[in-house]
Amino acid sequence: MRFDGRVAVVTGAAAGFGLAVSTRLTAEGAKVVMVDRAAEQLEKAAAGLAGALPVVADVSVESEVDGYVAKAVEAHGKIDLFFNNAGIEGRMAPMTELAVEDFDRVWAVNARGVFMGLRAVLKVMKQHKSGAIVNTASMAAIRGAATFSPYVAAKHAVAGLTRCAALEGAPFGIRVNAVAPGHIDTRMARDLTAQINPDDPDGVFERTSASVPLGRYGTAEEVANLAVWLLSEEASYVSGATHLIDGALNA
Ligand SMILES: NC(=O)c1ccc[n+]([C@@H]2O[C@H](COP(=O)([O-])OP(=O)(O)OC[C@H]3O[C@@H](n4cnc5c(N)ncnc54)[C@H](O)[C@@H]3O)[C@@H](O)[C@H]2O)c1
Asked: Are the C-beta atoms of 128 and 73 separated by less than 8 Å?
């Protein structure tokens, strides 16, 4: 039980990576404050996990971010671990066909939401002079992708925020890293295959799988393995980096 006595906050916890990380952390003894805006799905997800506290919040709204952090502190008195993960894919289209609102919507969740979460949680962690944070970036943080500019821009921002937070947190014993997943089989990945070709999403899925050197999509559990390791004491000298997990796609 390597997370016995630890308090974690996980955003985007109702599904995908957030649920996989919440599952691992609770199984290994942590109390997990599970944050998501999808209230019904969150209730169901948290009900199956011992030591989980569901908190409905939208990470793109400042008062709700400060609210989920306040609820975690009220319930457990501290925050040791933070998986700053909630994100959306937005609409895929060339820049010339996007509305400014398409950009703003993705930026609000994937970049501003990550910044606001870091700001609020770092304030708490600085008080008790310890903590580990993992932000969810993407391979879109290290390369471009045609028709995906708002997402790519926001994920580059997550890599930058990770570096800054690691430098600001280091004097307080706080480590900050990011995971940068490639193609991982979650709802988000399935929505993207449908956006690329609504008539044949399975064909897109197969071709995408074949383009990965390891020959398949990853799983949310595989991403959780990396994120949980980065949150653990085993990663005590790892900070400030964005870690690819992509089946060698970007090798
Ligand atoms: N699946 C992939 O291939 C992939 C690859 C790289 C990065 N990512 C990133 O991983 C993260 C998790 O994605 P996933 O694949 O698990 O997706 P998912 O859609 O399965 O899960 C995302 C969760 O976040 C929640 N969420 C979305 N917007 C929110 C908001 N404003 N406030 C609170 N909760 C919100 C959703 O309700 C959902 O439960 C995202 O940041 C995504 O960009 C995913």
From this structure: no
